[in-house]
Amino acid sequence: MRRGHRLGAAALAVTAMLAALAACGSGGSGNGGGGSQGKTKIVIGTFGEFGYEPLYAEYEKLHPDIDIVARVTKAEDHHKNLAAHLATNQGSADIEAIEEGWIGQFKAQPDKFVNLLDLGAGDLKSQWPEWKWQTSVSKDGKQIGLGTDVGGMAMCYRTDLFKKAGLPTDRDQVSALWNDWDSYIATGKKFAAAKVPGAAFFDGPTVMYRAILGQADVGLYDTSDNVVVESNPSVRGAFDKTIEAINAGLSAKIIAWSPDWNAGFQKGSFATIACPAWMLAQIQDLAKDSAGKWDVAKIPGGTGNWGGSFLTIPKQSKHQKEAFALAKWLTSPEQQAKVFRGAGLFPSTLTLYKDPVITDFKSPFFNNAPVGKIFSDSVATMKPQYLGPKAGDINTAIINGLTRVEQGKQSPDQAWQQAVSEIKQIV
Asked: Strands 346-347 and 149-150: what pairing?
């Protein structure tokens, strides 16, 4: 599970009409390819909350001949469906978003996508950090995607629950509680000792594991696409540190992105959750009645990244030039700034990192936390981690192992060995 599991209300509002679109693909009939009243219809497939809905309306006003149709599904379903559409050469949208955990899988199939360099994307390269640009470049040098956001990393916490536990609530004082994950767990033990009714220290294993792993220089793969899960101590270290927190009784034992997890935000079932920038949108969506109770502190370890996506154009699209124009517009610095201020997704474009439109932005929902500065600092110091072809599926296998431990079904060693066995099958 990863940033792609952002399941805001939009993900739950997929209609039968959109399901029909998945069956028939981006093509259509009539003038311009099936849009209403002769307009060119551009189908865009995303997952969770991208914050694009206001932008779609703005773009359609600027381009009266374009009709944008959004197709929104859960992340794993989205990427599985895309793989199936590519395999059968039918059913894909004109623009398909791909999350960082899956980009390696799809850029290994560059012939299934439009090489955006052929449409002029090379002129846009300077917008992004070199690592972000290269993440969606195939081995043979084709650029299949334009970068949307990056995750960065912080720690979101409930000030009201911290107060009940006798812990400080000021974000600077909270940041000082944990300079590493050991001190985070130590703080959690103090929270647990206070026995705050109905509240655990953190939600469950998924988010903590991903946050810790995202801070490592090397993750699941080396740069030659070799899986290093067994040989890289950072992977087992992230697994073991999460187990340590579980064994200390700090977890609410809630599976991330489940209905219970959604309800947990509303009920205040956990006091902290590691927060890539896109998690802010999740919290605001799921805990609408908790405005002002949440705040944002630094992440243990000080930096890290989890998440970020790309907009790609499958070769199946019958409107490649129009799709590229829309993708280019959506990923421009101006639109990325709007998405951040509206939905909390942190930009991937370099010019914004020192722009007051970002750095001076404070979030009223999060107790006026200076989230623009917090995430700018996080992204500025992060070291990008190479992601191989099956990173998403590998992480899912490890997280499933953590869940089995938390549910008392296996010991940590048993869960790890099963995960390793499953990973060998995956790759």
From this structure: antiparallel
